[in-house]
Recover the amino acids of this structure.
């Protein structure tokens, strides 16, 4: 799913909101997550997962074309850890709701 598809689905599910407002909401959420990660903060969305950064140490890599040794600088990379509820839903183990009848 692309960002524009997400916006379209949210706009269809919430007809009381203008598509431009939905676009602004989604963009704001993504921008805030990005800014928090850039500051080194962790972002946790209960039931969905947590965004954080992991530090990669400097290392000696190899140029794939020549095989020559290349120094690779250390860097921070974004990391996502899915929450329990998300993992269960993705794996088809959705929790049975009290109103749902067994299949």
């Amino acid at each position: 799913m692309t960002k524009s598809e997400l916006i379209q689905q949210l706009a269809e599910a919430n007809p009381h909101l203008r598509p431009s407002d939905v676009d602004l909401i989604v963009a704001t959420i993504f921008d805030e997550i990005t800014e928090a990660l850039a500051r080194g903060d962790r972002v946790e969305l209960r039931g969905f997962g947590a965004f954080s950064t992991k530090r990669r140490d400097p290392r000696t890599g190899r140029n794939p074309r020549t095989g020559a040794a290349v120094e690779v600088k250390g860097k921070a990379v974004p990391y996502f850890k899915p929450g329990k509820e998300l993992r269960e839903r993705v794996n088809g183990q959705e929790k049975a709701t009290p109103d749902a009848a067994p299949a």
